[in-house]
Amino acid sequence: METESADVAVIGGGVAGMSTAARLQADGYSTVVLEQHHNVGGCAGYYERAGFRFDVGATTLVDFVPGGVGGQLLSAVGFEPPAIAIQDAYDVCLPDRTVTLYRDHTDWDAERRAKLGDDKQHLAFYDFIDDLSTRLWRLTRKDIKMPIQGVGDIVRNARAVGLRDLPLARYLRWTMADAMRAHDVYDDRALRAVVSMLVEDTVHASLNEAPLLNAVLGMTIHRTGLGRATGGMYGFWDSFVDQYTDISGRVETGRTVTGVTGSHGEFRVNSAAGPVHAEQVVSTVPVPVTRDLASTVVGDRLDDYCSMLRAHEGSALVLFLGVPDTEVEGHERTHHQILQAYDEPLGNGNNMFVSVSAPGDDVSAPAGHRAVMLSTHCAVEPWQDLDRAAYEEQKGAAREQLLAGGRTVYPELGTDPVVSEVATPVTYEQFTNRPRGAVGGYKQTPANANQGAVPQDVGIEGFYLAGDTTWPGLGTVACVKGSKVAADHVRS
């Protein structure tokens, strides 16, 4: 058997892994991506069933516009984007009103004044969030690195931030609840619900836990441009992989890594198909998985981070439906966020996101049909150690809860489905090897985000981390951002 080798072996073909590999391949390094599944994408991937292609996690691409974080990636590697439809708006459906989150700032400002309040306190809060959002998205698109690990990082960040944005540091210990209370709007039920929903979806934490700066970025992603490629994540990855292999990058799917040994210049990445020898390694699978795979490489350097992640883990429930057009027609928008009850905790169907493939998108669904994904957050613990009967009962209840929420927008949804399948933490543990089925990153708090986050460099020359359990955390835009930091370490 011919020995496989590469300058850099990337473990995991999700957003962080593919982005890191593409950056390095375009920069002259030979790279290989080792992905256990039969296609790439990870938590922004897809699966196929009965002619439908369903997004398994993320259903939108954030900031894949010219100059955005995703747009910068495509430009840096010389890739042409696939056909991505940028959403002008999506609806947040509350029990007593619908609030439309417009991308256009003038439209959004008019909407929030009309639906969420326009007194002095509300307007001051809106201005505060707008100012922070503008500054933070500008910085996100620059060369920021966290956590700060030395003088070089201080210099790098100082150049990116500049004097005008340096005062933002005073908010590093604030939560979103602190900001709302400071502006005397926390007790506004509808406003608090909308902010809570947006923060939970992006930061995975409550208002009292969510770091203000991270939460502001999360709750304003609609302003950056939420995009969906034709064919959803399948369409995006089909285009991305084609262009990556065109520049001689290699993707080895169906190849589960079983261990990593060695040191800088002579790493050995093992799998059933044989080893890959690499000068350097970037692991983009979850930190606890990395620790287990590379125990002789990392030693105890990841132990404290793994404990932190375990204490802040979360997961998701998703209902995948393949349905006739008639069940979802009659709506201008294809994305909806739904709150079923103000007074119930978020998650488990109360705060759910509904994504429907576009009319005429025959890549996502057979002609005359649509792919529908209904997702919500959930805790990991209630899904552990269930017997078969208890698990099926709990999964059935989750299906009915998600379907009931979806029917508040689409009353006929799921009445005659071609496909109807539910994913739970058990599903995610089985198919992704994520411990306990914890997906989507961890709940961010002031203690474990930013300066407290898992760094890409844990002090092992030639061995680096990226992905949604490292800085900057959750979502496609964060994984793309983190890939830049990981690639910089490889180059240094």
Automatic annotation (TrEMBL):
<dbReference type="GO" id="GO:0016116">
    <property type="term" value="P:carotenoid metabolic process"/>
</dbReference>
<dbReference type="InterPro" id="IPR002937">
    <property type="entry name" value="Amino_oxidase"/>
</dbReference>
<dbReference type="InterPro" id="IPR045892">
    <property type="entry name" value="CrtISO-like"/>
</dbReference>
<dbReference type="InterPro" id="IPR036188">
    <property type="entry name" value="FAD/NAD-bd_sf"/>
</dbReference>
<protein>
    <submittedName>
        <fullName>C-3',4' desaturase CrtD</fullName>
    </submittedName>
</protein>
<dbReference type="GO" id="GO:0016491">
    <property type="term" value="F:oxidoreductase activity"/>
</dbReference>
<dbReference type="Pfam" id="PF13450">
    <property type="entry name" value="NAD_binding_8"/>
</dbReference>
<feature type="domain" description="Amine oxidase">
    <location>
        <begin position="207"/>
        <end position="481"/>
    </location>
</feature>
<dbReference type="Pfam" id="PF01593">
    <property type="entry name" value="Amino_oxidase"/>
</dbReference>
